[in-house]
Amino acid sequence: MAPYFLKNLVPRKEQRAEARPLLEVLREVTWVQWALFFSGITELQTQFNKPTHDITTAITLTLLFRSVGAVIFGILSDRFGRKWPLVGNLVLCAVLQLGGGFVQTFKQFLACRSLFGIAMGGIWGLAAATSLENLPVEMRGIASGVLQQGYAVGYLLAACINLTLVPDTPTTWRSLFWTAAGMSLFAAALRAVLPESEVFLRAKAIEKAKGTSTGHKTKVFIKETGEMLKRHWLLCIYAVLLMTGFNFLSHGSQDLYPTYLHASKNISTHNATIATIIGNCGAIAGGVVAGYISQYLGRRLTIVVFVCLIGAFIPLWILPNTFGALAAGAFCIQFGVQGAWGVIPIQLAEMSPPAFRATFPGVAYQLGNMVSSAASQIEATGGDHLKTNIIVNGVLTKVPDYATVQGILIGVVSAFVIFITIIGPEKHGAHFEKHRTAFEEGAARGDALFEDEDLEERRGESLEEKEKPSVDKV
Prior knowledge:
Elements: H1 4-7, H2 13-17, H3 22-28, H4 31-38, H5 42-48, H6 52-80, H7 83-100, H8 106-133, H9 140-148, H10 150-164, H11 174-193, H12 198-210, H13 214-254, H14 257-264, H15 269-297, H16 299-318, H17 323-342, H18 344-351, H19 359-371, H20 375-385, E1 387-392, E2 395-400, H21 402-422, H22 454-473
Helix pairs in contact: 4-8, 6-7, 6-8, 6-19, 6-20, 7-8, 7-11, 8-19, 9-15, 9-17, 10-15, 12-22, 13-17, 13-19, 13-21, 14-15, 15-16, 15-17, 16-17, 16-21, 20-21
C-alpha cells in the first residue's frame, strides 16, 4: 500500500469539483483585486579590482541579511496590515538602492548591500500575502506563477539595462542601481494609493466593534505567535528545508551564470547578457505554465514534474560551446527552475498557519536563502580548483570549469528538492482568507475561522452594552 504522502500528491476529486472554471473567475475579478495583485558582476570586478570570489561575497551578505527583514516586516504585516508595512519596505529598498550607487570603496559596497538585504527580505512575504489573499481560490495557481515571475521580470529588466544603459553612461553599473531605486519608489507609490487588504479591513472592523485597544491586540498577537510556534515547529523546520533546496536551485543556476559563460565558454559579455535575457524569458513562461497546471495537477506533483525537467536539461545547459545552444539551454533550465518556483508562493501560503501567512512564508523563504547564500561562492571556489582548457584567440587556455561545478550542484539539489517536496504536506485550495488574523484570539488554531455574520453580531453586542446604562437608570 502506497504511503499517504504519495497517494496525496494529486488533489482529491471533490477538491477539484468545487472549483469554478478559470475564465468564469477571471470575469468576476474586480480592478482593485487586479491592482493589489500586480502591486505584488563584471563591472564591479573592474571598479573595485576584486576577483569573482570576492564580488560574490556581496551576494552572500545580501542573502544572509534577508531573513532579518522577513522577520521584521512579516511581523509588522501580520500585526498591523498589508498596506503600510509594504510601502515602508519599498521606500527603504529605494533609499538603499540609491545609496548603493554612491559607494566609493568595496567595504562601503558590502555594508550597503547588507543593509539592502534586510530591506529586500521583507518584500516577498508581504507581496505574496497581499496578492493571493485578495484573489478567488480558483485563480491562485496561475496567480502564484505570475507573481513569482516578478523576480524573473526584474532580472530581465536588469539585464536589459545592463546591456543598453550601463555601457553608454559614464557612471556604468551605478546607473543600474539608480534606475532600480526609481522603480521601487514607483511600486511604493502604487501600493500607497490602493486600499488595505480586505481581510484586514474586515478584521479591524470586528475588533473596533468590540472596542479592543491597540495594546490588547498586540498582546494577543504575541501570545498567538508563541502558540503558533509551539503547534507548528515541525512545519517551520520543513518549510526552511524546502526553501533551502529551492534557493540553491535558483541561485546555483543564475548568480554566476554570466561569469560562467564568459570565463568557461569564452562568450562575450554582451552575448552572456543576451543569454541571461533568453533564460529569463524561459523562467517567465515556466512559472506561468506551472502555476496554471498546479491548480489541477496539485502543487507538489507539479513541482516534482518541473524539477525532473531541470535534470533532463542539465546537459544542454553545460555541454555546448556555441552561443545558440547555450542560450537554448538557459531557456530550458530556467523554464524548469522557475516553473517549480512558480508554485511556491501558493504552496507556502496554503500550508502556512493561516494567520501568519506573511511572516511564515517570508521567514521560511529567507532562512532558506540564508542557508543557500554561499551557492555562488561554492561555485566560484569549485571553479578555482576545477579547471578545463578552451581556445582563446587561438591559444589553449586553462579556465575555471564552472560548467561541471554547476552541473553537479544543480543535479544534487534537484534530487533533494524532489525528495523534500514529496514527503511534505499540501492543502490544495485552502481558504486561508476566511481565517482570523494574528491579532485575534485563537488565531494560532488551524480551525479559527470567522464567519460573515461575526461583524454584525459583534456590532449588535456593542450596541447592547452601550444601551445598558440607560436601562439601569430606568
